[in-house]
Amino acid sequence: MPQHQTQTTRPKVTYAKGDVVLFRDVERYWLGQPGHTFVGRVERFWTHADTRKVLYDLTELSGNRARAGIDPAYMRLLPATDAMHDIDTAPLREPDTGAMTPAAVAWLRQHLAQDSSTLPVRH
Fold first, then answer.
1. Which percentage of the chain shows pLDDT scores above 70?
2. What residue segments make up the domains of the chain, in order of their start?
3. Measured between alpha carbons, how far is residue 22 from residues 1, 49, 60, 113 in Å?
């Protein structure tokens, strides 16, 4: 009996200037070299003159290095909700602030210092 291969199709995603993305340098990845995946910020997008494919220019956030002509097939959007998950799920009712992540504590300190009216009302 023949085996059927399943393929995952990813919906076409377009990225905007300022989006934070995860990028994989596919050549380094397949060669087994380190440093093949990094976080970057989209600086611009453009269409290749010959292939008509949309490509992206990124700034690598860890080293502030420019990367040009990135194929979006090797990029994934890093949603803000994922980056802010620790703050959004911080145990605000815990008496011990050590139970909160450093990011949650920093967010609370910043908002308490600015204006306590922005915090949710305690019921």
1. 72
2. 20-78, 81-114
3. 40, 25, 10, 33
